Amino acid sequence: MKKHRPYYFILLLVIIFLGIMSRKTDLIPLSTGDFLYAVMMYVFIRILMIDKKGIQIIITSLLICYGIEFSQLYHANWIDELRNTLLGKYTLGQGFLWTDILAYTMGILLAFGIERIVLKRKF
């Protein structure tokens, strides 16, 4: 599985690009960016934990995404200032939404499903 790491990295870069582009146009719903954020998180965790089982990647990715989303309920000057930067906005988000939780869940589950299909057919 370690031989797949470069492919995951390329995929990660593509997903990041698509996620940023999804925020640049009003034609794409905001939840698409959150969906792609979750897919990106799944791929990133897969790169870090390449030999782990899919369920471990799913749980880790969901916990990180949910943790970041719920952290948006916390407001202190230092974290709000961080959220006002470009990197902070893209990484930590701006405000809590239940629909983001749904988008994260769907994104991670779809990423897992596609990974299973591709790996069974190709590798």
Automatic annotation (TrEMBL):
The keyword Transmembrane helix applies. Signal peptide: none annotated. Keywords: Membrane, Transmembrane, Transmembrane helix. It comes from the Bacteria. The chain crosses the membrane at residues 7-22, 28-45, 57-75, 95-114. The keyword Transmembrane helix applies. This is DUF2809 domain-containing protein. It comes from Flavobacterium azizsancarii.
